[in-house]
Amino acid sequence: MVLQIEITPLNQWMQGGGRPFIISGPCSAESEEQVMKTAITLAGIKEVKAFRAGIWKPRTRPGSFEGVGSKGLKWLRKVKEETGLLTATEVANEKHVFEAIKYGVDILWIGARTSVNPFTVQEIADALAGTDVIVLVKNPVNPDIDLWTGAIERIASAGIKRIGAIHRGFSTFEKTAYRNQPNWQIPIELRRRIPGLPIICDPSHIGGARKYIFELSQKAMDLNFEGLIIESHYDPEKALSDAAQQITPDELVEVLARLVLRNPDPADPKLLDTLGELRQQIDVFDDHLIELLEQRMQIADRIGEFKKHNNITVLQSARWDEVISKAVVKGKDKGLSAELIDAVFKAIHQESINRQIRIINKEMLNNNK
Ligand code: PEP
Ligand code: MN
């Protein structure tokens, strides 16, 4: 699926805008002093184009700080007037949209807990019709690319042309080092589906801790994302929400200075020639991999016939554990990560099992037709 959506390129969103588009500011607006102090320092950082602050905060559990509400919009208007930064906040219903627009907020983002709900996204889209604000759609909390795509389509159908996506990672039941799993293949697939869609990475909510901000930001730049939204606070330890992941504006300067920005589109013919040759080699190996997979599956089918004949279950877990651990050891010897071997072999194994189950139950499935 490839969707043709009319999207204004990011470098035309504002004067002097370009890659990487940096949005920064506190998780939540807490007081006029906190907002102004943070914004004035951020405005001194040339890469920072927009100031973020949550006014209405969706909290996982009740009883936490739920944002200052509409009174914080005046502070955002003051930021805009006094610093010239664009302002950005989260909207989760129609009322938020009307209020934010009334106070001149330039960028509205739809949070991860809202983009899961097509009713709410449609309500927001209807409220946006006829306006020309910038809208950024965060990925839904669950790794569902169709929901993410659908939310973007709804906003685009309301006539919004300066539209982008924010990749903030996906929640999992298991505790992992990062607060939210990045699943980088999902935003990459989103960009394939919606050509020209700017994607902004949110390393603060992916990592959930200050120490991960640089590595995640660099990874996003290497994947050619258009920008970063990074939470910052003049005194992060005292933040009323997401204290562990906010950095000071000074730390933001360091992160930005360390980032290596590589060339997304080399024009030099020599570079392109070399890249072309290497890519041809990759294509040859990819064809090879497909042939090998075909051959491997043919053997799996023969095993399926054999198990059927001898009334043996498809899955023998001990055999499978042995296959994976042997492959991980061999892969390690060849410099291949356990993560790669595990993912590839699990996918191959699943396919073998599916085919064997189909073979074993062929007659039964046919009889059911
Ligand atoms: C936020 O940006 O502060 C926020 C609540 O983000 P998310 O919707 O990604 O959890
Ligand atoms: Mn936050």
Write a structural description.
The chain has an eight-stranded parallel barrel, surrounded by five helices. The mean pLDDT is 95. The two termini are 31 Å apart. Helix 2 (71-83) links the parallel strand 2 (48-52) and strand 3 (86-91). It has helices at residues 32-43, 71-83, 94-102, 118-128, 145-157, 185-193, 203-207, 213-222, 249-258, 269-310, 317-333, 338-360, 362-368, and strands spanning 21-25, 48-52, 86-91, 107-110, 134-138, 163-167, 199-201, 227-231. It has two domains: 10-258, Aldolase class I (TIM Barrel); 269-368, Chorismate Mutase Domain, subunit A (Up-down Bundle). The radius of gyration is 25 Å and the shape is elongated. Helix 1 (32-43) runs parallel beside helix 2, helix 3 (94-102) packs parallel to helix 4 (118-128) and helix 11 (317-333) runs antiparallel to helix 12 (338-360). It contains 13 helices and eight strands. Helix content is 49%, strand content 10%. With 369 residues, the protein is α/β, with parallel strands linked by helices. The structure holds phosphoenolpyruvate (PEP) and manganese (II) ion. Residues 27, 54, 58, 111-113, 138, 168, 205 line the site of phosphoenolpyruvate (PEP). Manganese (II) ion binds next to loops.
Any ligands, ions or cofactors bound here, and which? Answer: phosphoenolpyruvate, manganese (II) ion
Q: What is the CATH architecture assignment of the largest domain? A: Alpha-Beta Barrel
SS field, number of helical segments: 13
CATH-assigned fold name of the largest domain: TIM Barrel
Secondary structure: number of strands:
8
Structural class by sheet pairing and helices: alpha/beta
CATH H-level superfamily of the largest domain: Aldolase class I
> Main beta sheet, described?
8 strands, parallel, barrel
Number of domains: 2
Secondary-structure element string: EHEHEHEHEHEHEHHEHHHHH
Radius of gyration: 25 Å
Strand order of the largest sheet: 1-2-3-4-5-6-7-8
**Global morphology:** elongated
Helical amount among residues, as a percent range? 40-55%
Mean pLDDT: 95
Measured by DSSP, the beta-strand proportion falls in 5-15%
